[in-house]
């Protein structure tokens, strides 16, 4: 019982506080609320089974790795030929899923937000997914790297390029200051 | 004629530009110090504006992230997690 109690306490301590982030990341990867929910459930079950072996360090990174593996398995079941390159596979999956539904508007400046969102949607997938992980889902660079299985340096450069593109787009539409767009 | 370039906070605009995104994302800006960088942003109009634009973009995207959360899914997932905890405890 002692073992069960500590496993249960560990699950409550490390897993439950991350459910919101896991859901957002799952949504980014699947583009679909019910698939995202299934993926997070799968992730929680896997975490539950593995919690006694988890050392308590970086729970979010640990959970994101589990989520990513669960997602790779799902993709493999659906589309075995996509598995050669998980990064590309995720991007292609996103392509096929098409555009996400319009987020509801609860904005301070609707025009600004609408322009940003459009510029965000116009980004190439490999830039958009990184921006989505960091800015929409609130992941760190390292966590994003783990989730997408891409080096941190690549994450940083894609992030920088993604934001520069959005920035340039805003400037072109007269919404940002002129000058350098570094 | 040689101009001595101003370096607010002891940093060049180039150094600040290279680390601005990491700073806004609360990642490490080493070897620069956060306080030096913040001082530069305060004193240098161009870099300060640049930071403001990127901060606005970041905040706008964070709002979009919150807006797309599906409250029903989140409630069900939290309940699912809670159930795992309770089943384990009994």
Provide a descriptive summary of the structure in words.
The complex is a heterodimer of chains A (182) and B (90). With 182 residues, chain A is mainly α. Chain A has two domains: 1-99, Orthogonal Bundle (Rna Polymerase Sigma Factor, Chain: A), CATH 1.10.1740; 102-182, Orthogonal Bundle (Arc Repressor Mutant, subunit A). Helix content of chain A is 71%, strand content 0%. Chain A is built from nine helices and no strands. In chain A, helix 7 packs across helix 9 (152-172) and helix 8 crosses helix 9. Chain A is elongated, with a radius of gyration of 18 Å. In chain A, 37% of the residues are buried. Chain B has 90 residues and is mostly helical. Chain B has one domain (8-89). Helices cover 71% and strands 0% of the residues of chain B. Chain B contains four helices and no strands. Chain B has helices spanning 13-24, 34-43, 45-67, 71-89. In chain B, helix 1 (13-24) packs across helix 2, helix 1 (13-24) packs parallel to helix 3 (45-67) and helix 2 packs across helix 3 (45-67). The longest helix of chain B has 23 residues, at 45-67. Chain B is elongated. The N and C termini of chain B lie far apart (81 Å). The mean pLDDT of chain B is 87. The interface between A and B is large, with 57 and 38 residues.
